[in-house]
Design brief:
The complex is a heterodimer of chains A (304) and B (135). Chain A is α/β, with parallel strands linked by helices. Chain A has a domain of 212 residues: Pyruvate Kinase, Chain: A, domain 1. In chain A, helix 1 runs antiparallel to helix 5 and helix 4 crosses helix 5. Chain B is 24% helix and 44% strand. Chain B has two helices and nine strands. In chain B, strand 2 and strand 3 form a beta hairpin. The chains are: A alpha/beta (304), B alpha+beta (135). At the A-B interface, helix 1, helix 4, strand 6 and helix 5 of A face strand 1, strand 2, strand 4 and strand 7 of B. Chain B: F-type ATPases have 2 components, CF(1) - the catalytic core - and CF(0) - the membrane proton channel. CF(1) has five subunits: alpha(3), beta(3), gamma(1), delta(1), epsilon(1). CF(0) has three main subunits: a, b and c. Chain B: Keywords: ATP synthesis, Cell membrane, CF(1), Coiled coil, Hydrogen ion transport, Ion transport, Membrane, Transport.
Chain lengths: 304, 135
Protein backbone atom coordinates (compact mmCIF):
# COMPACT_ATOMS: atom_id res chain seq x y z
CA UNK A 1 0.00 0.00 0.00
CA UNK A 2 1.70 3.15 -1.23
CA UNK A 3 -0.67 5.59 0.41
CA UNK A 4 -2.63 4.74 3.48
CA UNK A 5 -6.37 4.66 3.60
CA UNK A 6 -6.41 7.64 5.92
CA UNK A 7 -4.66 9.78 3.32
CA UNK A 8 -7.12 8.83 0.61
CA UNK A 9 -9.97 9.74 2.90
CA UNK A 10 -8.41 13.14 3.55
CA UNK A 11 -8.02 13.77 -0.15
CA UNK A 12 -11.62 12.83 -0.85
CA UNK A 13 -12.74 15.19 1.86
CA UNK A 14 -10.75 18.14 0.55
CA UNK A 15 -11.92 17.50 -3.01
CA UNK A 16 -15.47 17.42 -1.73
CA UNK A 17 -15.17 20.79 -0.06
CA UNK A 18 -13.54 22.21 -3.18
CA UNK A 19 -16.44 20.91 -5.18
CA UNK A 20 -18.84 22.66 -2.85
CA UNK A 21 -17.02 25.94 -3.42
CA UNK A 22 -16.91 25.67 -7.20
CA UNK A 23 -20.54 24.65 -7.24
CA UNK A 24 -21.48 27.71 -5.21
CA UNK A 25 -19.48 29.96 -7.53
CA UNK A 26 -21.18 28.43 -10.52
CA UNK A 27 -24.59 29.17 -9.08
CA UNK A 28 -23.64 32.71 -8.12
CA UNK A 29 -22.32 33.40 -11.61
CA UNK A 30 -25.46 31.94 -13.16
CA UNK A 31 -27.74 34.19 -11.14
CA UNK A 32 -25.61 37.24 -11.83
CA UNK A 33 -25.63 36.68 -15.57
CA UNK A 34 -29.35 37.24 -15.62
CA UNK A 35 -28.86 40.54 -13.82
CA UNK A 36 -26.05 41.52 -16.16
CA UNK A 37 -28.20 40.76 -19.16
CA UNK A 38 -31.03 42.79 -17.72
CA UNK A 39 -28.66 45.70 -17.20
CA UNK A 40 -27.49 45.42 -20.79
CA UNK A 41 -31.09 45.41 -21.93
CA UNK A 42 -31.95 48.40 -19.77
CA UNK A 43 -29.08 50.34 -21.29
CA UNK A 44 -30.13 49.51 -24.83
CA UNK A 45 -32.78 52.26 -25.24
CA UNK A 46 -30.25 54.97 -24.43
CA UNK A 47 -27.80 53.63 -27.00
CA UNK A 48 -30.56 53.29 -29.55
CA UNK A 49 -31.93 56.81 -29.11
CA UNK A 50 -28.46 58.24 -29.08
CA UNK A 51 -27.58 56.47 -32.31
CA UNK A 52 -30.75 57.80 -33.89
CA UNK A 53 -29.95 61.32 -32.85
CA UNK A 54 -26.36 61.12 -34.00
CA UNK A 55 -27.38 59.77 -37.37
CA UNK A 56 -30.01 62.51 -37.61
CA UNK A 57 -27.43 65.21 -37.07
CA UNK A 58 -24.90 63.48 -39.26
CA UNK A 59 -27.30 63.33 -42.17
CA UNK A 60 -28.17 66.99 -42.03
CA UNK A 61 -24.92 68.65 -41.42
CA UNK A 62 -21.59 68.07 -42.99
CA UNK A 63 -20.08 66.22 -40.18
CA UNK A 64 -16.76 67.73 -39.47
CA UNK A 65 -16.15 67.26 -35.83
CA UNK A 66 -12.83 66.67 -34.09
CA UNK A 67 -14.09 63.29 -32.94
CA UNK A 68 -14.84 62.10 -36.46
CA UNK A 69 -11.80 63.58 -38.15
CA UNK A 70 -9.30 61.10 -39.48
CA UNK A 71 -5.74 62.06 -38.82
CA UNK A 72 -3.87 61.94 -42.11
CA UNK A 73 -0.86 60.30 -40.73
CA UNK A 74 -1.77 58.40 -37.58
CA UNK A 75 1.25 57.83 -35.41
CA UNK A 76 -0.12 56.75 -32.06
CA UNK A 77 -3.04 54.62 -31.13
CA UNK A 78 -4.65 54.04 -27.77
CA UNK A 79 -5.94 50.60 -26.88
CA UNK A 80 -8.49 50.10 -24.14
CA UNK A 81 -8.35 46.55 -22.83
CA UNK A 82 -11.37 45.34 -20.90
CA UNK A 83 -10.74 42.30 -18.72
CA UNK A 84 -12.07 41.00 -15.44
CA UNK A 85 -10.99 41.88 -11.93
CA UNK A 86 -10.98 38.36 -10.66
CA UNK A 87 -9.80 35.06 -12.03
CA UNK A 88 -11.50 31.68 -11.97
CA UNK A 89 -13.24 32.49 -15.21
CA UNK A 90 -11.43 30.07 -17.45
CA UNK A 91 -9.63 31.65 -20.37
CA UNK A 92 -11.76 34.80 -20.27
CA UNK A 93 -9.08 37.36 -19.48
CA UNK A 94 -6.28 35.62 -21.29
CA UNK A 95 -8.23 35.43 -24.53
CA UNK A 96 -8.88 39.18 -24.34
CA UNK A 97 -5.19 39.72 -23.76
CA UNK A 98 -4.33 37.44 -26.68
CA UNK A 99 -6.64 39.47 -28.89
CA UNK A 100 -4.91 42.59 -27.64
CA UNK A 101 -1.54 41.17 -28.60
CA UNK A 102 -2.81 40.44 -32.08
CA UNK A 103 -4.12 43.98 -32.43
CA UNK A 104 -0.88 45.34 -31.03
CA UNK A 105 1.11 43.49 -33.63
CA UNK A 106 -1.13 44.71 -36.42
CA UNK A 107 -0.95 48.32 -35.31
CA UNK A 108 2.80 48.15 -34.79
CA UNK A 109 3.13 46.75 -38.29
CA UNK A 110 1.29 49.83 -39.51
CA UNK A 111 3.93 51.90 -37.84
CA UNK A 112 1.90 53.15 -34.91
CA UNK A 113 3.05 53.50 -31.38
CA UNK A 114 0.69 52.36 -28.69
CA UNK A 115 -0.69 53.71 -25.45
CA UNK A 116 -2.52 51.24 -23.28
CA UNK A 117 -5.53 51.98 -21.13
CA UNK A 118 -6.64 49.09 -18.96
CA UNK A 119 -9.88 48.12 -17.30
CA UNK A 120 -9.84 45.23 -14.85
CA UNK A 121 -7.21 43.97 -12.45
CA UNK A 122 -6.20 41.07 -14.68
CA UNK A 123 -4.99 43.34 -17.46
CA UNK A 124 -3.23 45.54 -14.95
CA UNK A 125 -1.46 42.56 -13.42
CA UNK A 126 -0.44 41.30 -16.85
CA UNK A 127 1.15 44.61 -17.77
CA UNK A 128 2.76 45.13 -14.39
CA UNK A 129 4.28 41.67 -14.34
CA UNK A 130 5.85 42.20 -17.73
CA UNK A 131 6.83 45.71 -16.79
CA UNK A 132 5.12 47.13 -19.81
CA UNK A 133 4.03 50.72 -19.57
CA UNK A 134 0.40 51.74 -19.58
CA UNK A 135 -1.23 55.12 -19.27
CA UNK A 136 -4.09 54.48 -16.92
CA UNK A 137 -5.94 51.61 -15.34
CA UNK A 138 -9.41 51.40 -13.85
CA UNK A 139 -10.29 48.48 -11.60
CA UNK A 140 -12.92 47.19 -9.27
CA UNK A 141 -16.08 47.20 -11.34
CA UNK A 142 -15.71 44.47 -13.93
CA UNK A 143 -18.76 42.41 -12.99
CA UNK A 144 -21.10 45.34 -12.51
CA UNK A 145 -19.97 48.40 -14.40
CA UNK A 146 -21.72 51.71 -13.80
CA UNK A 147 -22.24 54.46 -16.29
CA UNK A 148 -20.08 56.77 -14.22
CA UNK A 149 -17.09 54.51 -14.78
CA UNK A 150 -17.77 54.40 -18.50
CA UNK A 151 -18.00 58.19 -18.52
CA UNK A 152 -14.70 58.45 -16.68
CA UNK A 153 -12.95 56.15 -19.13
CA UNK A 154 -14.58 57.89 -22.06
CA UNK A 155 -13.51 61.30 -20.83
CA UNK A 156 -9.89 60.17 -20.51
CA UNK A 157 -9.86 58.63 -23.99
CA UNK A 158 -11.55 61.60 -25.61
CA UNK A 159 -9.11 63.96 -23.97
CA UNK A 160 -6.16 61.98 -25.29
CA UNK A 161 -7.72 61.80 -28.72
CA UNK A 162 -8.41 65.51 -28.96
CA UNK A 163 -4.86 66.56 -28.18
CA UNK A 164 -2.89 67.93 -31.08
CA UNK A 165 -0.43 65.66 -32.79
CA UNK A 166 2.95 65.95 -31.15
CA UNK A 167 1.48 66.98 -27.83
CA UNK A 168 2.27 64.76 -24.89
CA UNK A 169 -0.18 61.90 -24.58
CA UNK A 170 -1.80 62.52 -27.93
CA UNK A 171 -3.33 59.59 -29.79
CA UNK A 172 -4.80 59.53 -33.28
CA UNK A 173 -6.89 56.43 -32.93
CA UNK A 174 -8.66 54.66 -30.12
CA UNK A 175 -9.31 50.95 -30.17
CA UNK A 176 -11.24 48.87 -27.69
CA UNK A 177 -10.73 45.18 -27.00
CA UNK A 178 -13.57 43.54 -25.13
CA UNK A 179 -15.50 40.30 -25.10
CA UNK A 180 -18.73 40.20 -26.95
CA UNK A 181 -21.54 38.26 -25.36
CA UNK A 182 -23.10 36.15 -28.06
CA UNK A 183 -24.87 33.60 -25.95
CA UNK A 184 -24.35 31.71 -22.74
CA UNK A 185 -22.07 29.36 -24.63
CA UNK A 186 -20.06 31.63 -26.88
CA UNK A 187 -18.32 34.83 -26.04
CA UNK A 188 -15.78 36.21 -28.44
CA UNK A 189 -13.01 38.64 -27.81
CA UNK A 190 -13.45 41.52 -30.23
CA UNK A 191 -11.39 44.52 -31.19
CA UNK A 192 -13.16 47.58 -32.54
CA UNK A 193 -12.01 51.03 -33.49
CA UNK A 194 -13.82 53.57 -31.37
CA UNK A 195 -12.28 56.83 -32.54
CA UNK A 196 -12.31 58.53 -34.96
CA UNK A 197 -16.00 57.73 -35.05
CA UNK A 198 -17.28 56.21 -38.18
CA UNK A 199 -20.36 58.24 -38.73
CA UNK A 200 -23.63 56.38 -38.54
CA UNK A 201 -23.32 52.73 -38.28
CA UNK A 202 -26.15 51.26 -40.26
CA UNK A 203 -27.13 48.74 -37.66
CA UNK A 204 -30.62 48.68 -38.97
CA UNK A 205 -31.49 50.55 -42.09
CA UNK A 206 -34.48 52.83 -41.57
CA UNK A 207 -37.60 51.63 -43.32
CA UNK A 208 -38.74 53.59 -46.35
CA UNK A 209 -41.60 55.26 -44.48
CA UNK A 210 -39.33 56.12 -41.62
CA UNK A 211 -37.00 58.50 -43.33
CA UNK A 212 -35.38 60.83 -40.92
CA UNK A 213 -37.34 64.05 -40.61
CA UNK A 214 -35.88 67.45 -41.21
CA UNK A 215 -34.76 68.49 -37.79
CA UNK A 216 -34.41 71.91 -36.35
CA UNK A 217 -31.32 72.16 -34.25
CA UNK A 218 -31.07 74.16 -31.14
CA UNK A 219 -28.73 76.00 -30.62
CA UNK A 220 -27.06 74.80 -33.85
CA UNK A 221 -26.21 71.56 -35.58
CA UNK A 222 -22.55 71.91 -34.71
CA UNK A 223 -23.25 72.53 -31.04
CA UNK A 224 -25.71 69.68 -30.83
CA UNK A 225 -23.08 67.43 -32.35
CA UNK A 226 -20.59 68.74 -29.85
CA UNK A 227 -22.88 67.65 -27.07
CA UNK A 228 -23.91 64.37 -28.62
CA UNK A 229 -20.69 62.80 -29.77
CA UNK A 230 -18.90 62.56 -26.42
CA UNK A 231 -22.01 60.99 -24.96
CA UNK A 232 -22.14 58.62 -27.88
CA UNK A 233 -18.56 57.57 -27.27
CA UNK A 234 -19.27 57.02 -23.58
CA UNK A 235 -22.35 55.04 -24.30
CA UNK A 236 -20.34 52.81 -26.65
CA UNK A 237 -17.81 52.22 -23.90
CA UNK A 238 -20.60 51.51 -21.42
CA UNK A 239 -22.03 49.02 -23.86
CA UNK A 240 -18.64 47.32 -24.18
CA UNK A 241 -18.30 47.17 -20.39
CA UNK A 242 -21.75 45.63 -20.00
CA UNK A 243 -21.05 43.04 -22.66
CA UNK A 244 -17.74 42.25 -21.03
CA UNK A 245 -19.44 41.84 -17.65
CA UNK A 246 -21.99 39.42 -19.02
CA UNK A 247 -19.25 37.50 -20.82
CA UNK A 248 -17.12 37.34 -17.72
CA UNK A 249 -19.95 35.84 -15.71
CA UNK A 250 -20.79 33.36 -18.43
CA UNK A 251 -17.15 32.33 -18.69
CA UNK A 252 -16.95 31.96 -14.93
CA UNK A 253 -20.06 29.86 -14.83
CA UNK A 254 -18.69 27.58 -17.52
CA UNK A 255 -15.29 27.28 -15.86
CA UNK A 256 -16.82 26.54 -12.49
CA UNK A 257 -19.16 23.98 -13.94
CA UNK A 258 -16.30 22.01 -15.45
CA UNK A 259 -14.36 22.36 -12.20
CA UNK A 260 -17.31 20.87 -10.34
CA UNK A 261 -17.54 18.04 -12.86
CA UNK A 262 -13.85 17.35 -12.54
CA UNK A 263 -14.07 17.30 -8.78
CA UNK A 264 -16.89 14.80 -8.97
CA UNK A 265 -14.82 12.57 -11.24
CA UNK A 266 -11.84 12.81 -8.94
CA UNK A 267 -13.94 11.91 -5.93
CA UNK A 268 -15.24 8.84 -7.73
CA UNK A 269 -11.76 7.74 -8.65
CA UNK A 270 -10.37 8.34 -5.21
CA UNK A 271 -13.25 6.49 -3.59
CA UNK A 272 -12.49 3.46 -5.73
CA UNK A 273 -8.82 3.50 -4.86
CA UNK A 274 -9.64 4.03 -1.20
CA UNK A 275 -12.00 1.06 -1.24
CA UNK A 276 -9.33 -1.03 -2.87
CA UNK A 277 -6.86 0.01 -0.21
CA UNK A 278 -9.38 -0.82 2.48
CA UNK A 279 -9.99 -4.24 0.96
CA UNK A 280 -6.28 -4.88 0.69
CA UNK A 281 -5.88 -3.92 4.32
CA UNK A 282 -8.61 -6.30 5.40
CA UNK A 283 -7.21 -9.13 3.30
CA UNK A 284 -3.80 -8.60 4.79
CA UNK A 285 -5.16 -8.61 8.28
CA UNK A 286 -7.08 -11.82 7.68
CA UNK A 287 -4.10 -13.54 6.18
CA UNK A 288 -2.00 -12.39 9.13
CA UNK A 289 -4.53 -13.80 11.58
CA UNK A 290 -4.88 -17.03 9.67
CA UNK A 291 -1.13 -17.31 9.42
CA UNK A 292 -0.80 -16.67 13.16
CA UNK A 293 -3.42 -19.25 14.05
CA UNK A 294 -1.76 -21.80 11.79
CA UNK A 295 1.58 -21.15 13.37
CA UNK A 296 0.08 -21.54 16.85
CA UNK A 297 -1.68 -24.76 15.83
CA UNK A 298 1.56 -26.12 14.38
CA UNK A 299 3.45 -25.25 17.56
CA UNK A 300 0.78 -26.90 19.73
CA UNK A 301 0.79 -30.04 17.54
CA UNK A 302 4.55 -30.23 17.89
CA UNK A 303 4.24 -29.92 21.72
CA UNK A 304 1.67 -32.71 21.98
CA UNK B 1 -45.70 55.79 -38.52
CA UNK B 2 -49.43 55.73 -38.07
CA UNK B 3 -50.01 59.33 -37.14
CA UNK B 4 -53.79 59.10 -37.29
CA UNK B 5 -54.04 56.72 -34.38
CA UNK B 6 -51.60 58.57 -32.17
CA UNK B 7 -53.56 61.05 -30.14
CA UNK B 8 -50.74 62.07 -27.91
CA UNK B 9 -47.05 62.43 -27.77
CA UNK B 10 -45.18 59.26 -27.19
CA UNK B 11 -42.44 59.97 -24.71
CA UNK B 12 -39.34 58.00 -23.86
CA UNK B 13 -37.43 59.38 -20.92
CA UNK B 14 -34.16 57.53 -20.87
CA UNK B 15 -31.18 57.59 -18.56
CA UNK B 16 -27.86 56.01 -19.44
CA UNK B 17 -28.62 52.76 -17.67
CA UNK B 18 -32.39 52.46 -17.78
CA UNK B 19 -35.64 53.80 -19.14
CA UNK B 20 -37.02 56.09 -16.47
CA UNK B 21 -40.46 56.73 -17.86
CA UNK B 22 -42.21 55.97 -21.06
CA UNK B 23 -45.75 56.51 -22.13
CA UNK B 24 -48.24 58.94 -23.64
CA UNK B 25 -48.14 62.58 -22.72
CA UNK B 26 -50.13 65.69 -23.52
CA UNK B 27 -47.32 68.18 -23.05
CA UNK B 28 -43.68 68.39 -22.14
CA UNK B 29 -41.83 71.34 -20.74
CA UNK B 30 -38.06 71.33 -20.70
CA UNK B 31 -35.24 73.82 -20.68
CA UNK B 32 -32.75 73.88 -23.51
CA UNK B 33 -29.55 75.86 -23.61
CA UNK B 34 -31.48 78.67 -25.26
CA UNK B 35 -34.48 78.75 -22.98
CA UNK B 36 -37.64 76.90 -22.09
CA UNK B 37 -39.35 74.78 -24.68
CA UNK B 38 -42.83 73.35 -24.62
CA UNK B 39 -43.72 70.43 -26.83
CA UNK B 40 -47.26 69.66 -27.87
CA UNK B 41 -48.61 67.34 -30.50
CA UNK B 42 -47.50 68.18 -34.01
CA UNK B 43 -44.32 69.92 -32.98
CA UNK B 44 -41.72 70.38 -35.68
CA UNK B 45 -38.86 67.91 -35.60
CA UNK B 46 -36.32 69.30 -33.21
CA UNK B 47 -33.09 68.21 -31.68
CA UNK B 48 -31.85 70.35 -28.87
CA UNK B 49 -29.44 70.21 -26.02
CA UNK B 50 -30.89 70.47 -22.55
CA UNK B 51 -29.30 72.32 -19.69
CA UNK B 52 -29.27 70.78 -16.25
CA UNK B 53 -32.85 71.47 -15.35
CA UNK B 54 -36.31 70.24 -14.53
CA UNK B 55 -38.36 68.44 -17.15
CA UNK B 56 -42.12 68.25 -16.71
CA UNK B 57 -44.30 65.76 -18.48
CA UNK B 58 -48.06 66.21 -18.44
CA UNK B 59 -49.39 62.67 -18.69
CA UNK B 60 -52.14 62.15 -21.21
CA UNK B 61 -55.74 61.82 -19.99
CA UNK B 62 -54.94 62.59 -16.40
CA UNK B 63 -53.79 65.34 -14.13
CA UNK B 64 -50.67 63.49 -13.32
CA UNK B 65 -47.46 65.37 -13.72
CA UNK B 66 -44.14 63.59 -14.02
CA UNK B 67 -41.34 65.80 -12.80
CA UNK B 68 -37.73 64.84 -13.20
CA UNK B 69 -34.34 66.48 -12.84
CA UNK B 70 -31.84 65.91 -15.63
CA UNK B 71 -28.15 66.74 -15.68
CA UNK B 72 -28.09 67.88 -19.30
CA UNK B 73 -28.57 65.58 -22.22
CA UNK B 74 -30.88 66.34 -25.09
CA UNK B 75 -34.39 66.27 -26.38
CA UNK B 76 -35.44 65.03 -29.76
CA UNK B 77 -38.88 65.44 -31.27
CA UNK B 78 -39.95 63.74 -34.46
CA UNK B 79 -43.40 62.76 -35.60
CA UNK B 80 -45.06 63.04 -32.18
CA UNK B 81 -42.36 60.94 -30.70
CA UNK B 82 -40.26 62.60 -28.07
CA UNK B 83 -37.13 61.18 -26.56
CA UNK B 84 -35.38 62.81 -23.68
CA UNK B 85 -31.93 61.47 -22.97
CA UNK B 86 -29.63 62.33 -20.14
CA UNK B 87 -26.87 60.54 -18.33
CA UNK B 88 -28.61 61.04 -15.03
CA UNK B 89 -32.34 61.29 -14.69
CA UNK B 90 -34.06 61.39 -11.32
CA UNK B 91 -37.75 61.31 -10.62
CA UNK B 92 -38.70 64.14 -8.30
CA UNK B 93 -40.17 61.68 -5.79
CA UNK B 94 -36.82 59.95 -5.48
CA UNK B 95 -34.81 63.07 -4.82
CA UNK B 96 -33.71 63.74 -1.28
CA UNK B 97 -33.91 67.45 -0.82
CA UNK B 98 -31.52 67.53 2.09
CA UNK B 99 -28.87 65.66 0.13
CA UNK B 100 -29.40 67.93 -2.86
CA UNK B 101 -28.91 70.97 -0.62
CA UNK B 102 -25.66 69.57 0.69
CA UNK B 103 -24.50 68.96 -2.87
CA UNK B 104 -25.49 72.49 -3.79
CA UNK B 105 -23.49 74.01 -0.94
CA UNK B 106 -20.49 71.90 -1.82
CA UNK B 107 -20.68 72.78 -5.50
CA UNK B 108 -21.03 76.48 -4.67
CA UNK B 109 -17.90 76.38 -2.58
CA UNK B 110 -15.98 74.91 -5.50
CA UNK B 111 -17.36 77.46 -7.90
CA UNK B 112 -14.14 79.45 -8.12
CA UNK B 113 -11.77 76.56 -8.36
CA UNK B 114 -13.29 74.22 -10.93
CA UNK B 115 -15.13 74.48 -14.20
CA UNK B 116 -17.39 71.59 -13.48
CA UNK B 117 -18.78 73.26 -10.41
CA UNK B 118 -21.15 75.47 -12.36
CA UNK B 119 -22.69 72.43 -13.97
CA UNK B 120 -22.98 70.79 -10.58
CA UNK B 121 -24.63 73.85 -9.08
CA UNK B 122 -27.19 73.84 -11.85
CA UNK B 123 -27.83 70.15 -11.46
CA UNK B 124 -28.28 70.45 -7.70
CA UNK B 125 -30.60 73.42 -8.14
CA UNK B 126 -32.62 71.53 -10.69
CA UNK B 127 -32.96 68.63 -8.29
CA UNK B 128 -34.16 70.88 -5.50
CA UNK B 129 -36.62 72.61 -7.78
CA UNK B 130 -37.97 69.31 -9.04
CA UNK B 131 -38.40 68.00 -5.53
CA UNK B 132 -40.16 71.16 -4.40
CA UNK B 133 -42.51 71.04 -7.34
CA UNK B 134 -44.03 67.74 -6.31
CA UNK B 135 -44.08 68.29 -2.57
Amino acid sequence: MAVSLREYRARIKSTESMKKITRAMELIAASRIIKAQQRAQAAAPYARELTRAVSAVATFSNVDHPLTREQENPKRAAVLVITSDRGLAGAYSSSVIKETERLTERLRAEGKELDFYLAGRKAEAYFKFRQRPYVQAWTGFSDQPTYDKAAEIGAALIEAFLKEQGEDGDVDEVHVVYTRFRSMLTQEPTAIRLLPLEVVEGEEAPAADELLPLYEFEPSAAQVLDGLLPQYVQSRIFYALLQAAASELAARQKAMKSATDNAEELIKKLTRIANQARQAGITQEISEIVGGVNALADAQAAND
Amino acid sequence: MADTTVEHLHVELVAADRTVWSGEAAMIIARTLEGDIGVLRGHAPTLSLLSASVVEIQVANSNELVVVAVDGGFLSVAGDRVSILAERVELAEDIEVSQARIDLEEAKRLLDSSNEAEQRVRHAEARIRAAEKVS
